[in-house]
Write a structure and sequence with these properties.
CATH superfamily: Glutaredoxin
Helix content: 25-40%
CATH architecture: 3-Layer(aba) Sandwich
Strand order of the largest sheet: 4-3-5-6
Number of domains: 1
Radius of gyration: 19 Å
Mean pLDDT: 92
Distance between the termini: 53 Å
């Protein structure tokens, strides 16, 4: 009996590291950019990434201005913002990808990468947002996307490190301190 138990313990301890190392990172996904091209998130390795679900007709839409400013200030080889338009809250992102891209450029001069419109909650939640919101997939925490402009902070290795609420402004101390590594 002791031999069987010992064998099971050995097998389990050998399997756990491979299960843990098999966990996906943010860099393991490929998504569609707003212009219809494939965007391989592995190209962001080595950068901190602020992921945001966006909407053009929301009370938080003015955050685009602060996000663009933040991106211009810190956006370099070490930091990037990635926007994912979504129509999950109050139908506040009804436009097509082309209309969304035009709106962002015309009204806010957005230059950070924008992806194709996706669903960030519900039965049709996109796989990236499944990873962002499910502890079993991201290894850190479960979270709900509560509204437009919720923020997810990804480290240089593609690991989720923190979140910020939709009302948290782009220049909030929490976000700036994370970008600056404080």
């Amino acid at each position: 009996m002791k031999t069987k138990l010992f064998t099971l313990i050995i097998l389990f301890t050998m399997a756990v590291p491979s299960i843990i190392s098999a966990q996906k990172t943010f860099h393991d996904f490929k998504v569609e950019a707003i212009d219809g091209t494939e965007f391989d998130l592995s190209t962001l390795k080595g950068k901190k990434v602020l992921v945001i679900n966006t909407a053009s007709k929301c009370g938080n839409t003015s955050q685009y201005e602060g996000l663009e400013k933040l991106y211009k200030q810190y956006g370099s080889k070490e930091f990037v913002i990635v926007g994912f338009p979504a129509n999950n809250f109050g139908k506040q992102e009804p436009g097509s990808d082309e209309e969304i891209a035009e709106f962002c450029e015309k009204n806010y001069g957005v230059t950070f990468p924008m992806m194709s419109k996706i669903s960030v909650k519900g039965d049709d939640i996109h796989e990236v947002y499944q990873w962002l919101t499910q502890k079993e997939k991201n290894g850190l925490l479960d979270s709900d996307v509560t509204w437009n402009f919720q923020k997810y902070m990804i480290d240089e290795n593609g690991k989720l490190v923190d979140t910020a609420t939709p009302k948290t402004q782009p220049y909030d101390e929490k976000i700036v301190a994370w970008i600056e590594g404080k």
